[in-house]
Amino acid sequence: MRVLPFIYLAYMFVFLYFLIFFLLIYVRNRKDLFSFEELGKHYGVSFVVPAYNEGETIGEALKAIFDIDYDNIIEVIVVNDCSTDNTREVVEKFKKVYPKIKLINNEKNLGNAAGSQNVGLRNARGELIAVVDADSYPSGDCLKKMVGYFDDPRVGVVTAPVYVRNNDKFLERLQYIEYKTIGFSRRLLDYVDGVYVTPGPLAVYRKTALDEIGGFDEKNLTQDIEATWSLAYYKWKRRMCLATQVTSTAPTKFKEWFSQRRRWLLGGLQCIKKHWKTMLNPKTGMLGMFIVPFFILGTFLGSVGLGVFIYIFSTRIISNFLYTRYSITANTPLVTLNDFYLTPSFLNYLGVLLFLFGLVFTFIILKVLKEKLLTKQRMFDLFFYVFVYNSLYPLILISSIWKLARGKMEWK
Amino acid sequence: MFGSQKHVFWQTLLVTIFIFAMGIIAGVVFENWRASKIDYLYRQSEVVLLDLQAQGQLSSLPLFDCNTSIQETLSFANRIFEEAETLSRYEGAETFTEEIKLEHKKYDILRALLWANSVQIKKKCKADFHTVVYIYEYTKPSIDTKTKQGVFSRILSELKEEKGDEIVLIPMAGDNNLSSVILMMGIYNVSESELPVILIDEKTKITELKTVEEIVKLIK
């Protein structure tokens, strides 16, 4: 009995499951996607902006924060983690114009955003803590649309979709599509209490909730994912508001992009390690029943997929090598017309069909988010995103496993 | 809000199982359709072979025509060689069923009969065509064997193109556990462990790769 077709079928099943899962939620809630809780109580909000060598972007980020239409921003705490560029000077210059800025300069470099966020958290006076990355720019209506959720006393955090600010280069445009799909699917997960990350570019936390989980985990490479899981563990609700947004500067070079993705993956593995005991424990709610299994399944499928990929790849290399050697011995052509005559199996047809479904779903997302789709460039980007970009995951996984094996888990 | 929507996990599972099952059923139907195409070709070939065998039985009668018999043997060999290519392509694309594998076995029997018939015709009619029987490993070839067999197939295709009706080319699996094939292999001293083997005119055995020119020389 051949094993590979069954592995392919298992992957197809999982892919189909999640595709239908998101489609069903979308169909049921399509008229409600952009709704939000009306602003009731005007909670006091402290912004916390961790910064390390963000001189180029922090000025604009602070400007965006002060452009937010909300009347109870108590303070904007910038935690400078011993930047070696002009971050400190830029913030001090802004402080003269915006007296609500509070600049904290760490005595020594903490080496991770979580450490600086915790410093900010300890110094914050607001009932709500809005964490914003120093290269991210919240939209003016964000607090008016996000704060209303906190009228429910069990809401611990509210997040917004992160969109790519820079989308001129090819890699940026691909991330632009990716961020749109991530934001949209996170909103769909909100309907089943399945939000598993409240990303660093903008998340508004209830201070008491953050205090209960002990702040951000400084050992974790993705402290935003970990904080969300901990909040879920303590039964805090995590909400997602699609009616507003935050834009962020996405990596512009492949190397930066790659190391960012590797950090995300390693951080995810750290989260699994920390919370795996909640797995399938109904008492831990959605954390144990959905979030942790979802991540473990993803990692498992990724690893098995990687194994299969390596097996197929190495077999093909050996086979091609032998074929070339034997063909030279026998003096026969390496390639003939017959080689181009393909007879696809039904599995191939199913695979193509699923890819097309995936493409249609991405298409729907961009359409709902009012993106212009019918341009040559966008169509090309979309195809490339679905067929190639998403297939780069095994490369990141290999690199992450290698890094993990060497014990190199630094925050970069 | 959350409580009422959490049923979506189970609902999704049911819908997925349903769609997936439909997909598998469609796959089985699709493969059966391909198998039935092969089966149709097989049944036609079977009739031709029976006809050839019947002619062989009647060879002692005065009206028996050797030329016709040789021509029909050659054209039948060409036919099942072409069908073998279709069979091999469909077989490589089979996932859900084992139907085409069964067809392969049936074809192997047909090929063994063709081989026996060709030997008989050569003897009775003193025919000048050559039989080139290619016996390969089918059930679990290693990467090395599989690659080698790929090159052998290519060499034989070239040979057939060059020699045309001068040769009867019969490719068949040697490890399909079929008594007729095992018997033929036994008669001509071919063992399973030395596959793949090319047997020319039931005498010359080739187990190592050779160029088409070298094989042509061996045929002469």
Task: Describe the protein's architecture and organization.
The complex is a heterodimer of chains A (412) and B (220). With 412 residues, chain A is of the alpha/beta class. Chain A has a single domain (1-412), classed as Spore Coat Polysaccharide Biosynthesis Protein SpsA, Chain A (Alpha-Beta Complex), CATH 3.90.550.10. Chain A contains 13 helices and ten strands. Chain A has helices at 4-29, 58-66, 87-97, 113-123, 142-146, 170-190, 207-212, 223-233, 254-275, 285-330, 346-368, 376-387, 393-405; strands spanning 45-51, 73-80, 101-105, 128-131, 136-138, 155-159, 162-164, 203-206, 237-240, 246-248. In chain A, the strands form two sheets. In chain A, strands 3-2-1-4-8-6-9 form a seven-stranded mixed beta sheet, sandwiched between helices. Chain A has a three-stranded mixed beta sheet with strand order 5-10-7. In chain A, α2 links the parallel β1 (45-51) and β2. Chain A starts with a helix and ends in a 7-residue tail after the last helix. In chain A, 41% of the residues are buried. The mean pLDDT of chain A is 90. Chain B is of the alpha+beta class and 220 residues long. Chain B has one domain (8-219): Glutaredoxin. Chain B contains seven helices and four strands, in the order ααααβαβαββα. Chain B has helices spanning 2-5, 8-57, 66-92, 99-125, 143-163, 179-187, 212-219; strands at 130-136, 167-173, 197-200, 204-206. A four-stranded mixed beta sheet of chain B has the order 2-1-3-4, sandwiched between helices. The A-B interface holds A 2, 5, 9, 12-13, 16-17, 20-21, 24-25, 28, 191-193, 237, 290, 315, 318-319, 322-323, 326-327, 329-333, 336, 338, 341, 343-350 and B 1-2, 5-6, 8-9, 11-13, 15-16, 19-20, 23-24, 26-27, 30-31, 89-90, 92-96, 143-144, 146-148, 150-151, 154-155, 157-158, 209-213.
